[in-house]
Amino acid sequence: MTFNFDSKSPTGPIEDRWTNHRFSSKLVNPANRRKHSIIIVGTGLAGASAAASLGEMGYHVKSFFIHDSPRRAHSIAAQGGINAAKNYKNDGDSIYRLFYETIKGGDYRARESNVYRLAETSVRIIDHCVALGVPFAREYGGLLDTRSFGGTQVSRTFYARGQTGQQLLIGAYQAMMRQVSDGNVDMYPRREMLELVIVDGHARGIIVRNLITGELEAHHADAVVLATGGYGNVFYLSTNAKASNTSAIWRAHKKGALFANPCYTQIHPTCIPVSGDHQSKLTLMSESLRNDGRCWVPKNLNDTRMPSQIPENERDYYLERRYPSFGNLVPRDVASRAAKLECDNGHGVGPSKLAVFLDFQDSINRLGEDKIREKYGNLFQMYEKIAGENPYKTPMRIYPAVHYTMGGLWVDYNLQSTIPGLHVLGEANFSDHGANRLGASALMQGLADGYFIIPTTLTNYIGGTNLQKVTTNNPEFKEAMDSAKNRINKILGIKGNKTADQFHKELGHVIWDYCGMARNKEGLEKALKMIPKIKEEFWNNISVPGTGEQLNQELEKAGRIADFIELGETMCLDALTREVSCGGHFREEHQTPDNEAKRDDEKFAHVAAWEFKGEGKKPERHVEELKFDYCHPTQRSYK
Amino acid sequence: MESKHESNKMMTLHLKVWRQKNPHSEGKLVDYELNNVNPDMSFLEMLDILNQKLILKGEEPVAFDHDCREGICGSCAMVIDGNPHGPQKSTTACQLHMRHYHDGQTIVVEPFLAKAFPLVKDLVVDRSAFDRVIQAGGYISVNTGSSPDGNALPIPKENADLAFDAATCIGCGACVAACRNGAAMLFVSAKVSQLSLLPQGQAERAERVAKMVYQMDAEDFGSCTNMGSCAGACPKDISLENIARLNREFMRSMISGRKSYPNRKGGASEGSPA
Lengths: 639, 274
Prior knowledge:
The structure holds 2 protein chains of 2 kinds. By secondary structure, chain A is of the alpha+beta class. Chain A has helices at 17-24, 30-33, 45-57, 95-105, 112-131, 164-181, 247-254, 318-322, 332-344, 361-367, 369-387, 442-464, 475-494, 500-515, 521-541, 553-577, 601-604; strands spanning 37-41, 60-64, 82-83, 146-147, 157-158, 185-188, 191-199, 202-210, 216-220, 223-226, 259-260, 265-271, 294-298, 315-316, 356-359, 396-405, 408-409, 422-424, 606-611, 620-625.
């Protein structure tokens, strides 16, 4: 396979790069746009906003999603907020500052051009969402309110109580439904992408399974856009929704798209701790809570007193102690490791001892319970339902959990993968967050990609490419269809003794234990021996009742887990090869004396992109060197 | 939160679950006994355990919609002992925990049934009618790139808060399942309220409500008889006030609307002045 490893990143002054790039991009005449069809897979923030904006331009968009409605995509669950460099608070914010902090927060592992464009676009996202009727939080004067998030000392996070993702997604969904109404977008609900179809080296279609009838369908288009989210569910327990999966991007990877930085996963510091083996998923408590909540553990080892019984001088507010200037608002990777360290050292609380306190008493005393309820009411309610304790009265118990994956399909500045015509948006790509994502930046990236970037870059692709006529009668479609069919029949034919969930849990334990918050060579090598065994057993012993010609949720799960197993192996390989710590990738062998991640910019200031070389073969590692013209890498400090 | 039992004491439950292979086959309640139910489990985790047992016996698991399991995506939809999403107020099925049940209890689990929500399989129903109602007009028509500064238009906090309260609807359909007429008034009124309370929604205010109400009727949702079961079942506490606002908006649209809308017989609610 050949691929072009050119990032197409523009040069020149950083503030002019996107403007110049737009000017040099090819255009498509409005009358010609309706002759071009675009497949978009996924309807989260990135997919729904892309469908809306490309539909508005006049393209014929076909939108595919696994849920019954586009509004169910997991962006809906994002709680805290969305960043924008508006400087409405007059606190020294600027586009450059958002750019700089995102690069620094990502531990200097993202591409400068992409991140500057993201920061530049952020201000327009807020304007557009307000115009769409998104009910952001407002101050008494009627203007937009903001709050602070980790990794920054300005207040630039716009929010809608603790349901910002819901409100932004419903806004994008409605914009998309308007295009459905106008006939520019066709919806294909309850369809799962099983194969990418490549004709003459270009992405020209997909094979999907109709989840209700089981029928396999072939769909062709002039370009394919994947906006299918992250792969955090490889860990089994994560804050991702149950259906979130890697299959679309993994199948594209197996067709030639490089997979970048798979080991960069984000462990979110504040989640409700695991309560038992029955647990099916974890629930996040928004980072915004660290605006008003203080993290602490008892100073005494194995202290089992009720938190209210522990006097102030016997509490260790460890984040405020270790990071006096950022305090409770250090970035996620730093906060997660700090919580783990306290628990590893015997200061953990609760029945499992794998938890720390997040305490609102001081804020409640200062602002009153009503003010706290207004800011975080739904989060407190959710905590009470799950944990069975009232967080207005007693501190929350929280522990880090898998939340987001910075890795994903490699894309260039145009958000195009190494397969021409295949574009990847949002969490599914690797592009903007380096080795650690700052809070409230995922919503920003999803909407920047969908509303503002893909309309330009996809038009550039369509306008600049001589696209041959393709229909689903092309032999490539039949081949892909047969391959999808065979895989389903194979899974159904095994009739073994273990369920999909059992395999998923087993895989999750291995990945969490050896490729989780802290990694080391020995563990990763062990995982790389264990995962192939899980894979072998899966293909000999999976049990999926029922047939393929009906709604079969176990068949869906099994197909996704088969892909997670393969991805898990590449993740461990990536983590093993990256002999260094940075951001969310913490190799125990590489840390500073005070337990911070120790980077090596000489050897590792690059993106690692893996190429699939065939079943059972070791993937090949390629490298895109990162150049820093503006933000010169230094040891990241939040002290 | 008060538990009805000692924590960590495993329970045995008797389940009666609606099983139906497809829309054309006969459905029936099937009995299952489930041991070792942990009170900290969510209701859906309890169903997961049941399904694992069924699969290992070679039987088909119970199909049900679910996804985020945080009460926000609106996927989960089941009637538990006669109540959509179960007995707890302001709670989706995925956020209902087994600590509210006691050892030996019988629980009946059925799908959200309504004329406009055809059954797909077991507990899964087709709620695409909601999408078509939104498609009919539940949006503000602005193209990407044409918006003024977000702070160009101040919105009084009170209006913003009311719009927000309406916007918290998750589109689960509990309101329809709870209504003896299978009406979707609470769902439609939440969207109409949100957008008509905001200055950005004014341009299409009259047209939007008319189109959404016509589509609601075309989808075979029933009429509203102001019983309020919808608001009682709503996991997000969408208020009945929104239905009052919908009726007012609809009447306003009929009187002041400058465009001609498709013909329609009655008002938005039976018994309402429109």
